[in-house]
Amino acid sequence: MTVASISVSETPLVLYLLRRADDALILGHRLSEWCGHAPMLEEDMALANMGLDLLGQARELYSYAAKIEGKGNDEDKFAYLRDVRQYRNLLLVEQPNGDFARTLARQFFYSAFADLYWRAMMKSSDATLAAIAAKSEKESAYHMRHSSEWMLRLGDGTEESHRRAQTAIDDLWAFTGEMFAVDDGERALIDAGIAIDPASLKAQWFKTVSGIVNEATLALPKSDWMQQGGRIGRHSEHLGHLLSELQSMQRTFPGATW
Amino acid sequence: MATPNTPLWEVFIRSRNGLAHKHCGSLHASDATLALQAARDIFTRRGEGLSIWVVPSSAITASDPSEKGMMFEPAESKIYRHPTFYDVPEEVGHM
What we know:
The structure holds two protein chains of two kinds. Chain A has one domain (12-252): Ferritin (Up-down Bundle), CATH 1.20.1260.10. In chain A, 63% of the residues lie in helices and 0% in strands. Chain A has ten helices and no strands. In chain A, helix 5 runs antiparallel to helix 6 and helix 6 (127-155) runs antiparallel to helix 7. Chain A starts with 11 loop residues before the first helix and ends in a 6-residue tail after the last helix. By secondary structure, chain B is α+β, with helices and mostly antiparallel strands. Chain B has helices at 32-43, 68-76, and strands spanning 8-14, 22-28, 51-56. At the A-B interface, helix 2 and helix 6 of A face helix 1 of B.
């Protein structure tokens, strides 16, 4: 790697935007890894479509973060020129695709949150964020529907699909708590009406998720111990590998375009 | 990959209000709900549609290509069935 990482002035709003943008970029990238590998052509397209929705969300959030920061960074620099410790995404979204059930369970947990989150954010006092929310909400609602339908079919499908779906839920459950965590900087944004309190979404999220999981004849783990760290740059070992692929071109050929 | 668990579906898209649904292709899906979602992802990615129908391909009864002559050739010599032998009065305007 021949290009140095940028430095970012992480004011509370810039940090808030980067966290959501990183969620979308990293999950979108994970979905793009399925391109050409999905179990069937139809699902190959569906996963890529969801990935592109998320990439679009990431771009808008990065662009807005760049504008708020005002230090000459842009969406590409945020995506390509930050190290793993500068990434602020949830640990959940960086978890490897694993099998199809794991990818869909990860999507299901995230989309169940994102759907509620963006709908609530449409009332943000920040007009740009409210506009991004209005667009993202429709996309997330569809991601939620698609991943829910698959959870039902995998859970209530064959013995093997049930086992794979249950294993995915068990393994990913500890990464769901981070979606509802808030730090002091975010608390100030919540108080200002710019952000919404994710804790206020938790009951509805749990109701929706547990309802579908039960209907799918699956079970949520009883454990409430939750893994955290992504929001402050403490990631699992998987993110570095993901970024080395995502960033390799721009790090090797700075500013390359085609 | 076609398996017995993922039957074939025919997809019909309506592009705008007032126009008919048109056949645009087929896909594999395990059931109607997933067929509809797959149709959305495959055939409306560029804003092509406002409404989607999916129909099990097995529900379609098709004419036999080998009977093309019997089925369609008799109509080819009946030009009087085309409404082109009428003089449209001026006051009717555009029809």
